[in-house]
Amino acid sequence: xxxxxxxPLPIMKTIRPTSYIQNVPFYEVTMQETIQKLHxxxxxxxxxxxxxQYPGPTxxxxxxxxIHVLWKNELPDRHILPIDTTVHGAEKNNPExxxxxxxxxxxxxxxxxxxxxxxxxxxxxxxGPHFTNRLYTYPNHQPSTNLWYHDHAMGITRLxxxxxxxxxxxxxxxxxxxxxxxxxxxxxxLIVQDRSFHVDGRLLYPSEPxxxxxxxxxxxxxxxxxxxxxxxxxxxxxxNVEPRRYRFRILNGSNTRFYRFSLSNGAPFIQVGxxxxxxxxxxxxxxxxxxxxERADVIVDFSTCYGESIVLRNEFETQGEKPDxxxxxxxxQFRVVQSLTCPDDSSIPAHLAPVAKLTHYQQTRTLRLNMxxxxxxxxxxxxxxxxxxxxxxxxPRLGQTEIWNLINETQAxxxxxxxxxxxxxxxxQPFDRDLFEKEGRIVPTGPRVPPTLNERGWKDTVRANxxxxxxxxxxxxxxxxxFVWHCHILEHEDYEMMRPYVVIR
Length: 505
Ligand SMILES: [Cu+2]
What we know:
By secondary structure, the chain is mainly beta. The chain has three domains: about 20-175, Cupredoxins -  blue copper proteins (Immunoglobulin-like), CATH 2.60.40.420; about 185-335, Cupredoxins -  blue copper proteins (Immunoglobulin-like, Sandwich), CATH 2.60.40.420; about 365-505, Cupredoxins -  blue copper proteins (Immunoglobulin-like). About 5% of the residues lie in helices and about 40% in strands. Strand 1 and strand 2 form a beta hairpin. The chain is globular. Copper (II) ion (CU) binds next to loops.
């Protein structure tokens, strides 16, 4: 087993524009294969990175300052992970290595949103059926928040992200700057991901499910749990900190794994932001759940901890079991060993940003999260019992607000993500599953439970729990066009738990 806390936490570089096109910053990012040391005792690992870095460089942008990005693919022709060619979009007649970049949480026109079928290969030699343009533009009109960019290619997203194609994208604005939260070197993004390795250092991703079945090989797996935890691309790193407040922008960038973060010294997280920006007020939490793709913006105060070593733990129960503290129950370590370089004059204001509660809406949709068996007896997860290739069924009107009732008939929590929009969680309510299966009627068996305090900001990914109706309220806009909504468990998303949707004029 790999030793914990042997490597310092890497901090991703901030990417700089290569030029300006009519005063708009222009960035060029090249996807490249590279060899990286992910742990002191692990042989170097072949990974795929944006500009050859895993995780990719961090974008630091200003609100209302659009940017152009040219995403280029210089990856090899053969994939480094097992492709299931029975999965839609990954068939044998398609190129093995296809990429398209999505800015998760970005309010982006569809031509730059990274539609899964808008993929392209090395040097744009081949492009997918919905390829739109090479140069992407991000308007950045949304309030300050923590987004992330990652691959979204049809049928192989789970493999491309696992190979390393992900990075942070942070939007800043004046309102946030005025709050005087910890900044500069005291403001750190943390990308948390689980991985498994072969003894020779290669990334290990299963080529078939555990259960014996007459499936094709390689085959998709219904879920993936790695046996080590990486932060910013290092296995179980440590981070030397000063006795002061820090701001951590935490992203769960894992394929399937959920986390319940806590600190070993019992200190709380002061959460100031969720997926789509600042909360109304800071929320003090002892532990913090993040599903894949969710983000939390938190302040941790080390000011009274000089000399201590504090472990960031994970206590999320999977199938009724807590993770082993020796392995996936540990995330990283903070060592409060540095002396103060300057006094900590940061603050955590009582009020952060207004979050106007949405109440008015024009339409309601009831959408099932359900399952089916494929011809190999494997489980397919579906959105409203439809396949990716079925005709578009969700067509909200531009400028209108809808309530979506997500009825989770499955046994698992699905983090549901909509492109383009931000939304608010209204509530969750248990329903009678048997009755729904037999008669199709939705009969609640308990009250509507409002979201937790730290879920009451703007979101772009919501945990829809099994046996519950999760209600979200979504203003559609500001752009019309073709987008997707999907489960962010990458193994589900790749295997049919994703649907196109169209915002119509
Ligand atoms: Cu799912």
